[in-house]
Amino acid sequence: IDVASHLVEGKLELVGTRPEALLKGEGAVIQWKGERAGAYKDENGELYVLDTTCTHMGCEVEWNSAEHSWDCPCHGSRFSYDGHVMEGPAKKPLKKIAYSDTDEVRHIPE
Ligand code: FES
């Protein structure tokens, strides 16, 4: 993903990088202040950092790089890159995280 990427036991890990390190149009699950979070950088370089907890029943959504969406594996809810509901059963958007670019974040290996 960027020059700080490493392959750790065959899994991609971004060590000490921040969502800014994402390429435009790229999303990833990251670790933010010890919590799992979802980050996406849009084509203008704007960052969206979201709580990956599905608002239906609390499963963890995963980034869908083909569709640029956050998809829930449990009951099929889908959210746009900025967290809005695209498909139910979830009715509420993913929570936004007030991300500060001075905070340390880490990529969570798959
Ligand atoms: Fe995500 Fe049900 S918990 S769709």
Describe this structure as you would to a colleague.
- The chain is mostly beta strands and 110 residues long.
- It has one domain (5-107): 3-layer Sandwich (Rieske Iron-sulfur Protein).
- It has strands at 5-8, 11-14, 26-32, 35-41, 47-51, 62-64, 69-71, 78-80, 85-87, 105-107.
- Strands 5-4-3-10 form a four-stranded antiparallel β-sheet, with no helix packed on it. The chain has a four-stranded antiparallel β-sheet with strand order 6-7-8-9, with no helix packed on it.
- A hairpin with a 6-residue loop joins strand 7 and strand 8.
- Bound molecules: FE2/S2 (inorganic) cluster.
- The site of FE2/S2 (inorganic) cluster has 12 residues, from loops.
Number of helices: 0
The name of the CATH architecture is 3-layer Sandwich
SS-derived structural category: mainly beta
Shape designation: globular
Described by strand count, sense and barrel closure, the largest sheet is: 4 strands, antiparallel
Between the first and last Cα atoms, what is the distance in angstroms?
A: 14 Å
Mean pLDDT over the full residue set = 79
How much of the sequence lies in strands comes to 35-45%
Instruction: Catalogue the ligands.
Output: FE2/S2 (inorganic) cluster
**Which percent bin holds the helix content?**
under 10%
Number of domains: 1
Strand order across the largest sheet = 5-4-3-10
Number of strands: 10
The stretches of 5 or more residues where confidence is low (pLDDT under 50) are 1-17
The CATH topology name reads: Rieske Iron-sulfur Protein
